[in-house]
Design brief:
144 residues, 4 helices, globular
Length: 144
C-alpha cells in the first residue's frame, strides 16, 4: 500500500497509510487488521511493546489495538511464546498471554494454566524436538 501523499521521511508515509486504513474501516464499518514488523531491539525483548514498532511509532498512535507475538529462539523449537496486548482503546492493555504456537498449521492457543508448563518440560521438549529434527535431517541427507 502507498499513502496518498509523498513525504521526505518514510515514517510519515507509513503513519498516513495507517490513518487512511482506519478512515476506510470507519467509513465501511468493518474491522481492518494489518501487520507491522518489529525493530532489531525486539529480538532481544521478552515482550515486544509499542517501543519496538519498526519505522514509525505513529502507527501505534493511530491503531485502536496493538497486539504483539514474541518468541525467543529456544521457544520457537518448543512451540511456545507470548501474546502481549500493548494497546487497547476499548479495554485492558498491558496483558501477557502465554501461548502455544503451531506455525505449520497457523494455530495459536492460549495456555490457560501457565503453571502446567514447568521449565523442565520446556527444556525436555526443546531437546526432544531438536533431536528429532536432527535425526530427520540426517535421514534426508543420507537417503540421497
Amino acid at each position: 500500500m502507498r499513502s496518498t501523499r509523498q513525504y521526505d521521511s518514510l515514517r510519515h508515509e507509513l503513519k498516513l497509510v495507517y490513518e487512511e486504513l482506519r478512515n476506510l474501516a470507519m467509513e465501511m464499518n468493518i474491522p481492518i487488521w494489518t501487520a507491522s514488523q518489529a525493530n532489531r531491539e525486539a529480538s532481544n525483548s521478552e515482550v515486544v511493546g509499542l517501543e519496538n514498532m519498526s519505522e514509525a511509532y505513529g502507527k501505534a498512535m493511530v491503531a485502536d489495538i496493538v497486539i504483539s507475538i514474541s518468541r525467543k529462539p529456544a521457544e520457537k523449537s518448543t512451540g511456545s511464546g507470548r501474546i502481549f496486548v500493548a494497546k487497547n482503546r476499548a479495554g485492558k492493555d498491558g496483558i501477557i498471554f502465554p501461548v502455544k504456537i503451531d506455525t505449520a498449521r497457523s494455530r495459536i492457543e492460549v495456555i490457560e494454566d501457565p503453571s502446567q508448563m514447568s521449565l523442565v518440560d520446556i527444556y525436555e521438549s526443546h531437546n526432544t524436538g531438536t533431536k528429532d529434527m536432527l535425526k530427520s535431517k540426517w535421514k534426508e541427507i543420507t537417503s540421497k
